[in-house]
Amino acid sequence: MSDFFLFGVLPYVAVVLFLVVTVQRYRQSKFTYSSLSSQFLENKQHFWGSVPFHYGILTVLTGHVVAFLTPQLILGWNAAPWRLFLLEATGLMLGLMTLVGLVLVVVRRLRNSRVRRVSTLADWVVYALLLVQVVSGVLIAYFHGWGSSWFATSASPWLWSLVAFSPDVSFVAPLPWLVKTHIVNAFVLIAFFPFTRLVHVLVIPNMYLWRRPQVVIWNRGGPAARGER
Amino acid sequence: MDVRSQVSMVFHLDKCIGCHTCSVACKNVWTDREGTEYMWWNNVETKPGTGYPTKWEDQESYRGGWKTDGKKLSLRSTGKARIIPNIFHNTSMPSMDDYYEPWTYDFKELFNAPEGDDQPVAVPISKITGEQIDVEAGPNWDDDLGGSQIYARNDPNMEALTPNQRLQMMSIERLVFFYLPRICHHCLNPACVASCPSGALYKRGEDGIVLINQQVCRAWRACVAACPYKKTYYNWSTGKSEKCILCFPRLETGQAPACFHSCVGRIRYIGNVLYDADMLPEIANLPDDELVDAQRRMILDPFDEHVLEAARKNGIHEGIIESAQRSPVYAFVKEFGIALPPHIEYRTFPMLFYVPPLLPVMSSKENDVIDNDIDDLFADIEKARAPIQYFGSLFGGGNDGVVRYALRKQWAVRLVRRHLTVGDVTKETAERALAQADCTWEQADRIYRLTTLANMDERCIIPPFQREMAIEMMEDPHTHRSSVGFGFRNAPARGN
After folding, report:
1. Which residue of B has its CA nearest to A30?
2. Model pTM greater than 0.90?
3. Hey, which residues 208-267 in chain B have their CB within 8 Å of chain A?
4. How many other C-beta atoms can be found within 10 angstroms of the C-beta atom of residue B16?
5. Which one of A4, A123, B220, B495 is least enclosed by Cβ atoms within 10 Å?
6. Span B247-282, pLDDT tens digits
7. Residues of chain B whose pLDDT is less than 70?
8. Is B170 touching A (CB cutoff 8 A)?
9. Has residue B21 been placed in a domain?
10. In a domain, B452, yes or no
11. pLDDT in tens, B230-240
């Protein structure tokens, strides 16, 4: 029963919350969409935390998404043992890189009085959730090997069953508690996402690369030309 | 020909008394909120000096502005190719320590300190953390050459001088300084706009004012790094960048910006000029020392029939053309040729111009005899107290010729006025000076009048902005009825 709640209900609650609140927040208080960077207040430790964390988490997350979308591709890749080792080792390394970055980021925020001053409760919640997520992920990679393969045969079909609105929790129910923690925490993170600074992920500047260098806005274009409403 | 109008500025440095009234006016109007305490959209620096933020002119370390390979411009900091790997940590970004940590004083100490042998003092506390701090520096720490061995000596413009000239500038007998008031230059090729990944920064088409849309800014911080003049600032509290807005709400209602309005020395001139935006790509890659002349070529004669025709075709209103014809900026920059852009080698084409100060030697002392040769009054500009090369680095993009021209003309105007008012300078001397300075009696008179006599409505020619046509007709004023300003309907508070 609790498995059904955690893996059959919670994901829907999290995703609905995510969608409704992000859209509502963007419409109502667009101003609060910001990465709230603190690099200006502390410029040195920032590099050693922020850079490995972001690169690490983005690649690991991409790996998860690829495994979810194309499980057969991953299984095919893993057919040869050396390729499996390579994938697993890379995943673990990236996970550790993410963890090191995250720890440095948290330590910086705790120890630098200027950065601590601009930290909100939501920041600390995000850090707690991220720490649980990254630590459990690294532990899974270490203790429950070949995750890239069993993700494709357990998590992926379960996620697809969620997409199809017929949740089949039997795919994930027998998994070890560490993996379950990782999954549940992921959806808690998704639920909290729109209430925190994590929304900056959604406004990454993807148009910059294609636009002209200079932006000139004429009033005769009206509010739409200024990017409002 | 793509004729556009640009609100532009001239600061007459010979008149600046360094009173900081402009800075205070600006601070009181715009930057007295949390997160903006350290920002001085307008600041006044003593030159030679390191300025604010410290050594902002040193682009080897700050990497602001553009660089060129002769064919193509690229941002020194993070352009399109380099923003992706650098978005998590901008390596060209200055930190608060490059500006200063704003502070106040714990005045309670004066009343609550326990009885003791010493007089209680108000302890400095940080405006960010509220903790006690040791104040080490702040803006204007080197005002009037205070601590010149640390500050003036490290002025990046000193690199243009020979070791001998540097020594002379620092020797106490020849000590020289002037003030450099600085605001956003509302450049024609702004590096901040080009660097913004979110597209939050933009140049207003009608008047060229550069603004940051606070609703679109996402704190990627690229503009702070890209602006070579360091005139975009990061608000650490709201997580948005802010900059000088040229008091556009005042301009739109026909008032001069706060810093212009409050200027005690009356050094500030504002007016619009017409320029040819099509010329920008071709002149942007010229060698450094040709840029001042090239920018002047880009500014068009508002009386030329071809220009007017092209302007009208571009939809520029008659009122704006008429105001461009009366613009004091056009007079100083194009007609007289005595106002120069600061550090044009950054290639942003700043639209704030400076009239360089004359700094003449009034008398010299030899063997305890004070020599005050009247015929050589305001000794030749080559013998002025600050080396031409210093101004060449600051205002000429390394081209000393344009600086020499500007100084020589001012020198001629002074001799002419001396001839007319005091009479101890002969007409021949005055005429010779005018000829040397490429100036006429009429022009000397105009320069004199605009420099010394012009009052507010001659110094500040504010073009009609026609906001009533441009904005209000398209927007329902009721949508902004309960706003707190600039279109916010709820207070612009920091997000989570």
Report:
1. B215
2. yes
3. 213-221, 224, 234, 236-240
4. 23
5. A4
6. 998 998 899 999 999 999 999 999 999 999 999 999
7. 173, 362-367, 370-379, 466-490
8. no
9. yes
10. yes
11. 999 999 999 99
**Phi, psi angles (nearest 5°) of residue B281:** -60, -35
Mutate to test the interface with A, among B88, B468, B472 (most CBs of A within 10 A): B88
Cβ-Cβ contacts under 8 Å, A39 against chain B: 89-90, 93, 95, 221
Nearest to A205 among B197, B203, B490 (CB): B197
**B285–chain A Cβ distance below 8 A for any pair:** no
DSSP assignment of B282-300 equals HHTTS-GGGHHHHHHHHB-
- Neighbouring C-beta atoms of residue A84, cutoff 10 Å: 18
Distance CA B22, CA B43 (A): 8
Residues in B touching A33 (Cβ below 8 Å): 218, 495
Q: Which two tokens stand for residue B231?
A: 């005139």
CB contact under 8 A, B239 and A35: yes
Give the closest of B88, B220, B234 to A40, CB-based. Answer: B234
Phi, psi (deg, nearest 5) at residue B157: -70, -15
ipTM field: 0.91
CA atoms of A199 and A65, how far apart (whole Å) = 19
The SS3 assignment for B96 reads helix
Interchain contact, B193 vs A123, CB within 8 Å: no
The number of C-beta contacts closer than 8 angstroms across A and B is: 162
Q: Give the structural domain span for B317.
A: 1-59+139-195+246-483
> Residue B486: left (phi > 0), alpha (psi -120 to 50), or beta?
left
Instruction: For residue B183, report the phi and psi dihedrals to the nearest 5 degrees.
Output: -130, 180
DSSP string, B247-260: THHHHTTT---HHH
Checking A153-158 for CB contacts under 8 A at 24+ apart, the result is A153/A71, A153/A75, A155/A67, A155/A68, A155/A183, A156/A67, A156/A68, A156/A71, A157/A71, A158/A7
**From A10-14, A211-215, B43-47, B380-384, the region with the lowest mean pLDDT:** B380-384
Residues in chain B: 496
The answer to whether residue B343 is domain-embedded is yes
CA distance B190 to B203: 8
Cis preceding-peptide flag for B48 (omega within 30 of 0): yes
Distance between first and last Cα of chain B: 48
Structural domains in chain A, CATH included, are 2-226 (1.20.950.20)
Number of domains comprising chain B: 1
CATH number, residue B384? 3.30.70.20
Describe the strand order of the beta sheet including B3-12 as a list of residue ranges.
B268-276, B3-12, B352-355
- Give dist(CA B356, CA B362) in Å, integer: 18
- Please check whether residue B129 lies inside any domain of the structure: no
Give the residue carrying structure tokens 């640390």. Answer: B150
